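Hey,
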Amino acid sequence: MNEMNIKHLSLEQKIGQMFMFGFYGDKVPNSLKYLITKKYLGNVIVFARNFRNASILRSLTIDLHQEFAIPPLIGIDQEGGVVTRITDGATIMPGNMAVSSSGDPGLAFEYGRIIGRELRALGINLNLAPVLDVNRKTNPGMGVRSFGETPDDVVDYSTEMIKGLQAEFIFATGKHFPGIGAAELDTHIDMPVINSTLAELEDIDLMPFRSAILNGIDCIMTSHAAFPAFLKDNENTPATFCREIMTDYLREKMGFKGVLITDDLEMGAVEKSMSFREIILSAVRAGADILCICHDFEKQKKALEIVLNAVKTGDISESSIDESVIRIFELKNKFNKSRDFFLKDDIDEIVSGHKESADDILEKSIRILNREKKKTLNDSKVLVVIPKLKEYTKVEELKPVIENAERAILENSMKFIKEIETSGYTLPPEDAEIADIISRCSNSGAVIICSYNAHLDSRQKEMITAIYKANRELMLLMLRDPYDVNILEKEVLAVAVYAPLVPNIECGLRKLLSPL
C-alpha cells in the first residue's frame, strides 16, 4: 500500500473518508457497494448482525477490503463482556469490570492483546474500545462496561488494554468523551444532562482520557450527553456537537492529535432534539473527523450529500475537511503494508493458542464474595431461580449468548447439585412469578437466585428480599453488575460473573458450588 495523501483526491472522495457506515447482511450488499464506488465511502463498521461466526466475518472482511480503492478502517465494538460482537469462533473475554476486579492491571494488557490479535486475523483494524468512562452505580447504560468506579482503576486497566491492542497493530478508541459515567439515562434512548462541575469532570471523568492521550491512543469517540460545565450557551447540546468540547477542550487544551469519531448519529439522544441536517453539520463543525451512521442507507446517502452541499455553498470550509482527512490518512498510513497484513493468520489456531491465557484471565476475574460463609450443600433439593434474559442496553447484541445462558446455568449447577428445581422470572418480575418462587422456597434446602442488575430494578430487589425471608440458605449469582450483593445482608454468599457469557457462568458456578 503506497502512502496515502489527499493531494489528488476530489472533494467527494475527501468527504467519503469522513464517514463510517454500518450495513445489513453477511455479504457486501449492493447498497454498500454503491456508497463505496459512487459516493467514495471511506470506512465501515460491522456488528453481530453481519456474521454468525468468525469464519463468516473473515470472508466478509476479505470482500470488504477488495471493494475499496483506498484501504478502509473496518471497525467493531469488541469491548469484551456484555459488548462482545464475535461470540462464535473467537475467544470470549470476561469484560472490563471483571478484569479490573482481578487487582492485576497486567491482565488487561493480555486481555487487549488477545482481542487485538484475533481482530487482526479477521481483517479488522479498528476496535471501538476501550470504554474510558468512570462508572457510577446509578448509570443504567454503563455498569460492567466500565473498568471501575475510580479514575485510577480506569486509567490503570484501560492503559494496559490499549497497549495490548496496539501491540497487535489494532487502533484503539477511547470512549465516550468527555465521560458518561455519571449519566442516569442511556444515550441510545435519551440524552443525559451531566451536571458535574468542570473541576469534578477534570478530577474524575477526564483523567482516563488524559492518560490515554499521553499514551498515544489513536482515536477517541464522542458522547451524546450534554455537559453544561463546558458551555456558556446551548447547555443541553450533546457533546458530539459542541466545538467548545471537541475542539477547544479536547484538541487544544488536552492536546489530542488523533482521529475523533462520533458515536452513532442515529441514537435517540440526538434524533429527538435535532434535524438530521443539523446533526451532520453540527458534528463536522464541532471537529469530528469520522461520522458514524450504523443503520439507515437513506440517511447514509443523505449525510454525504449534506456535507458536500455545505462545502460547495461555503457553510463548511474545505480546509476543515482537509484537516480531518489528513488525520485519517495519518492513521491509515501507520500500517503502510499490504491489505493481506490483516489476513495471514489462521483464526482457529490463534484462538486455540489463546485458551490458556484466557482461562487464566477468567479465573482471576470472576470473584466470590464472603467465601468464609460458603455453604456445604446436602442432598436436599435446590431451587435455582433464573431470569428470562434480554439485552439490557441497545449497544448489546447478545441474543446468541442469552440463548445459551440458561442452559449453562442448569448444566453447571447439576455438576454439584443432585436435585434441582428451577423457576423463571421476567425482567422486571411479575407478582405471580414472585409468589410462585416464594411458595417453592419452603420445599427447598437452598436457593440460588440469578440476578440481573437487581440494584437498578425495584421489583427484583423486592423479590430477592422476599426469597431471603422465606429461605435463609440463599446464594446469589450476579449475572451482570456486582452491586446486587448490597441488596442483602453480608452473610449471603454471592459471586459476580459480570456478563451472562457461558465461560463466565461456568467459572462463577464452579467457584460458588465446588467444595472448599
